[in-house]
Structures are given as C-alpha cells and as structure tokens.
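Hello Y.,

Per our agreement to keep a running log of every chain we model this quarter, I'm adding this entry. I've kept the format consistent with earlier entries: sequence first, then predicted structure.
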Amino acid sequence: EQAGVEALRALADRDLGFAGRDDEVWAILEAEVRDRSHGSSILSGGRDPLDHAINRRCTRALDAVLAFMAYEFRTAGSVRPEALMLLDETLRLDGADGAEHRAILATRLGFLQHVAPEWFERSAEVLFGAQAPEGLAQTTADLAVKWGRPNRWLHEHHRDLLLNAVLR
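Predicted structure for the entry above:
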C-alpha cells in the first residue's frame, strides 16, 4: 500500500495523469491519510515532528495528497473541495498526530496559499491562531521556519510566532 501511494505521488508530480481514474486515486489517498493506526518507523531519536512525519504512512499519504492537489490545480485550475475538508480535519488533530500532520503542511504554506487562497485565509486561525489545538500554532510556525520557504504572509500576520521560533 505504501509503495502504491508513493507511485501515485510520483505520477501526480510528473503530471502523467490517472487515465480518468482521478476519483479512485483520491479515494485511496484519502483513506491512507485517515488511517493513523501505524506510527512512525522512527522509534526514538527523532528531532522534530517532520522526522517522524516523513517516516509514517498516513503523513506520507498527506504529502501525496498535496502532490495530487498540485496535479489537479495544474490540470483543472482548482483543487477538489474534499481535499480542503481533509486538510481541515488534519488541522484539528492534537498532540503528536497533529504535530506530524502539521509538519507536512508547514513546509508547503506558500503552495496552499496559492492553490486555495480562500481556504488558507479561512484556516489561518486554526493553523496559527487561538483555534489551533494546544501548542500546535507555535509548532506549526517552528516547522515553517525550520523546513519551509520564507513566507511573507506569515511574517506579516504572525510575527510573534516567528520571532519566538527564531529565538529558540
């Protein structure tokens, strides 16, 4: 299953298409993201949530979902609403699950802002504000600073979180 998800991600990254089976591909990816029964393959020594996320099936599937969203945006000019609902769901996760899912999203803030600007604005308080599960707004900012590309919006709207991340 994991190899299949990786193959779907590679096909999406290369815009090779899915022979009219985009809905089937979406269903596979969505199911894999929601299956959080497998932990990270890192048993100890992980430095931060991204270390664990890139070694966990559900968060690797979330990364594949982002590739699929990019493919749909490039080929159709938009992303499916179900993808945005799945992102909303992952932002509501708390604890280590929430941190690991946010690790994947934090590295792609600019992409998300580009392909889904309305969703991004609507979700800003859950990403970085008071609506984020406890401690995860700062975690998201920390991950964005450490692993993401510079993001003007984040600097303009959540400077305090960025300064906190940089100072540590």
